Task: structure prediction
Amino acid sequence: MNLDILAIAAHPDDVEQTCGGTLLRVSWREALDIPDGRVENNWENRLKVARVIRQLRPRVVILPYWEGRHPDHYTASKLGYEACFLAGLAKLDLGRALSAQQSAFSQVASAVASVVTGEKQGSAAETLAPHRPFKIIYATLYFDIRPTFVVDISEQFEARFESLMAYKSQFSDQEAGKDIFPARDEIRARIESMARFYGILAGVTYAEPFLQKEVGLVEDVTAIPVKSI
Amino acid sequence: MNLDILAIAAHPDDVEQTCGGTLLRVSWREALDIPDGRVENNWENRLKVARVIRQLRPRVVILPYWEGRHPDHYTASKLGYEACFLAGLAKLDLGRALSAQQSAFSQVASAVASVVTGEKQGSAAETLAPHRPFKIIYATLYFDIRPTFVVDISEQFEARFESLMAYKSQFSDQEAGKDIFPARDEIRARIESMARFYGILAGVTYAEPFLQKEVGLVEDVTAIPVKSI
Amino acid sequence: MNLDILAIAAHPDDVEQTCGGTLLRVSWREALDIPDGRVENNWENRLKVARVIRQLRPRVVILPYWEGRHPDHYTASKLGYEACFLAGLAKLDLGRALSAQQSAFSQVASAVASVVTGEKQGSAAETLAPHRPFKIIYATLYFDIRPTFVVDISEQFEARFESLMAYKSQFSDQEAGKDIFPARDEIRARIESMARFYGILAGVTYAEPFLQKEVGLVEDVTAIPVKSI
Amino acid sequence: MNLDILAIAAHPDDVEQTCGGTLLRVSWREALDIPDGRVENNWENRLKVARVIRQLRPRVVILPYWEGRHPDHYTASKLGYEACFLAGLAKLDLGRALSAQQSAFSQVASAVASVVTGEKQGSAAETLAPHRPFKIIYATLYFDIRPTFVVDISEQFEARFESLMAYKSQFSDQEAGKDIFPARDEIRARIESMARFYGILAGVTYAEPFLQKEVGLVEDVTAIPVKSI
Amino acid sequence: MNLDILAIAAHPDDVEQTCGGTLLRVSWREALDIPDGRVENNWENRLKVARVIRQLRPRVVILPYWEGRHPDHYTASKLGYEACFLAGLAKLDLGRALSAQQSAFSQVASAVASVVTGEKQGSAAETLAPHRPFKIIYATLYFDIRPTFVVDISEQFEARFESLMAYKSQFSDQEAGKDIFPARDEIRARIESMARFYGILAGVTYAEPFLQKEVGLVEDVTAIPVKSI
Amino acid sequence: MNLDILAIAAHPDDVEQTCGGTLLRVSWREALDIPDGRVENNWENRLKVARVIRQLRPRVVILPYWEGRHPDHYTASKLGYEACFLAGLAKLDLGRALSAQQSAFSQVASAVASVVTGEKQGSAAETLAPHRPFKIIYATLYFDIRPTFVVDISEQFEARFESLMAYKSQFSDQEAGKDIFPARDEIRARIESMARFYGILAGVTYAEPFLQKEVGLVEDVTAIPVKSI
Result:
């Protein structure tokens, strides 16, 4: 199988909040969970996430921005990046490497993996060929940094908001659920303002912000969007 | 008429050197000249460049980067930007405004205007409707700054080099011609290295670097070029 | 007289849009007008704005940020700053200096001056003592830059919006009025999103962003607002 | 108990050197010690520092800046930050979590904890309610970075210097004591210059520099200190 | 004649304050004066400063940093830079160009020119060959910016301070003299702290800070000064 | 023994690629190897690299830049830096500390250590006196960042290229060898372009870029290389 996009994050609704609209422009997702405050970027976790990447073979990986208030977010960002690197090493036999770490149980199940467009391979495959994603981009919402680009989610905005609300009601009895999030109207106002703010930067109604480390490559300068003046 | 791209620069071969390959991906250019070291960003010159913009009605304007070693370059950048702004003001009657300045002859004819794709209107039109370019981008070659994006000029590189050499032989008896530019082989080696350096950043052979002030807007995150890892 | 705050800007509603809520936390304002696209930072205009500063003797001056899309905004910023400097020069006799420039009429009346808390002196005073404002801050709304601080305008937001709408209806037949500003609902949505975005940064509902060049000075570290984590 | 300020650092006199004057504007401190060059940001140490935070319940935590020459300093900064985060997690039972790590003895006792204004709880409490500090600021002295703000320590400067000298004589036979610090007069000249340099930035005699990650929130723009011009 | 260093600044003691120690490591200086608050970067002033550069033919030019509180400082910086450029243009006949501007008397005599090591040509030479300085560096003292390098002035510090005091007593009845500068002891303390602060950055006692725009070129990496760790 | 320069990197030809020309201006090197993708910055590895530093006693240490695409590179950078710090701690007995870690075999042999000018001590010395390198600089080639300075390698360029080719043929059957590196001509073109690009910045033919964290210290301002204008 070959996925289009894999979004890696630390918590159930992180993906919904930071790049849910962008994912809705494609089609499907699922999430794994880990205990709050416990993401570690260690060898075993890198191997586990690398295995997911070899199974799903995404072209694009979306990671949290590498700084932020929540340690789980910036640690998941580094963990995800280094796992992408490991997944592409031809000589690394993930099955053998993970067995060698088996006795030491990870306290982190694996990090959230949101899978888009396609189906996950049923079991941990015994023969996982190396795979390195072509593109890694960082979701920068909530991180007080100028994005490289935004994605127009004007048509996905309502569906994304409903999807986030569904998550919240589902996980409301979980840790951090009750006190962090205010009531629905207030959530709506905040999320809409953020999306609209990034939309204004690009001349669309709602948008989600992202950063890429590479310089861009433009095919046709007469087709670059966003008015300058 | 409606142009695709207008490149504004201070000297005959500035355009060739900084965005010649990008222009060759489209079709045609011409250049005006001004005395070296004398570009001024004043009201009269802004009106004159604004008139060219209203005549040619470009969608994209390429300007020199707004810092640099040569005062003509950074002044032309500001002059060009502010002229783009003036050209779009509905209430500004350029014919009347220029007449009011007529007695004070500008020492600057108008700044280099490289016209691409289309034909220039024969005479200074009496009825020039307001026009504001959609996009302004800055050519950053030679300016020691990270570009926002590059344009692949691998197929245009040889033609661009020959075009630059043609300029040099044509203008070689002019000021600055003789001592700034070394012999052909050395020019070739330097120009090729610069183009290849920016190409390496984006995974192509030769490229020219540009900067845009706006954030980008991406239609399809699975189609973003340039490998991350 | 000694004013609290003087806001200098280029256009009738610039002050309303960028620091109207902050001014409403105090009490009163008025505005002068200049033709769009024509602000010049020259000696005569600096003298004229310096005279206003010596008349009104403000403690704080609010200027537009020194970069931006609109040349009038960034030029007004530099003009205002240099006028603040001139206003404080003990040996500069503004009356004599302005007379010397009298024959050359400025095309710029004076730049918008929004006067808060107090009354403007009726006529150009013959004896204007030197005055240098204590503090200069820059309104950064619409300028894509991280503010140093924001001001909570939650209680002033509605009044500020109505005041902006009043301006718009009053000036709607003026240059640039019709096409720049979309309908009331759309304006409301955009302005609210911007104010809320900056509010979120500081944990309040609505805010306006500002930048100061100096480092801050904190009296009591246990009283610094805005939650860190 | 509820502390005002808790300063976390890596070495006995780090607090004295970087924020001693600021702490003297309040009232009391104490310090723990760790072996030089051995601070590790691992799970066990985060739990231990989190326990101190839950015991002392500070409103403000001062951390070393997150970059610097000494690995202990930047590691203590990250350790302190992530401990603040853990201390606030409602579902984290620190007693149980620490017992689970008991067999693996930390080589790091706990990191220096300087306690101001109040008394430390006698023993490791069995019932430690979650607590997240309201504000985290970073002491930037010696780190070659522009501070967000400084604190005027003109009245505390002499007491701070004597306190630092007392530390030095007390610890002079310890590691790093002898060779790093030159004689008293030289120390005096250096410390005074640093304090005066930061004082000059804000128009006071002596000051200590700090950085906060959040934007500021200003109640009254006419009361902002530090002259602009 | 060929000078070593030419320092261009706006006011009598600007050079003393920002690079006086560096100049004392060489040998001689003189200064011209201009009215406070009146430096303009216009064509005529650029020609005048260019003439001084062609007369003195310096290898190094020291300019004020291009930002700052005082408009004279940052304007003198731009004026000096563009004059360096003009001075090197082979086709520019300064005598003829200045005559053409003769009727319009400049209100600025020429900008301070501090001449080091050598003697100034008696009169405005009729045959001034083009000359472009090899190196332009910027004095950054008082400008709140990280310098590229500092110059050790430990042995020149006392002579520089006395020289500055001599200036002050000489110019004390001039504009800006009385209120800007506090008493001698306070001046001494401030100037010593600034010099010592920059000295600490490089491991020497007193230093003056400078910035260069170019990357450095190191001959021998084992001879780079300033301890890293 | 006392080395001049020690280059620490993660992979066999990293040193050749990023600072090979600079090392050839001196005399000798050797390299250790580690498995690709497995560099860890942990206590044991820091002790091991610290032991090499105490044995070789280099004045200058060259490290990879602390960011980059390859995790081994940025991890080796931090590992090397912290090892330099540990190597200088007077109270740290490396022999005893390493014995305490002996049972836990490091999966990382030690990180590449390129030794220049001198001979390595035959065995792990029992009496290794503390040593802290005077200078740490970072090789920034391939890392898309402005260097502090470059080193002219025009005379070393050919020897460096042949040395890199020798490495490649020797290691071509190793992991990462086949697919990362294109054919010889393409390698030549890329490496030459990079070296020439950095050469152009400083006015030499070929150069390698480096960054230092400290400000510079200039002995003679008239001798600073690299033309400004």
